[in-house]
């Protein structure tokens, strides 16, 4: 079983000079609501034995091709995916024929032995560290 979820960080642009915008230093906010091209998407995948994959997917929203490039070689037919409700995860699981459990924010947190709390905890520690 794999728990998989993504998180986003604001991309720092101190190095590059962009006309019409001051450099962002240490956090800040995006000019756009939600997930935008100003944010970098990081995928975190863990299994029950705490084997962890952390990978940079790119900027903006996740696409299933990015998921396949990042973690496709680590999954097999018997893998059970537990993810948040983002539609790229659903499309990827359907395409690969994987068993998939989705968890919506603010709704149920567990479905039997399936949950994503392990990855949520990892996200919290990662964001505190950064």
Automatic annotation (TrEMBL):
InterPro entries with a match to the protein in the record: Tnp_ISXO2-like
Classification lineage: Bacteria, Bacillati, Bacillota, Bacilli, Bacillales
Start and end residues of each ISXO2-like transposase domain: 17-130
Name the record gives this protein: ISXO2-like transposase domain-containing protein
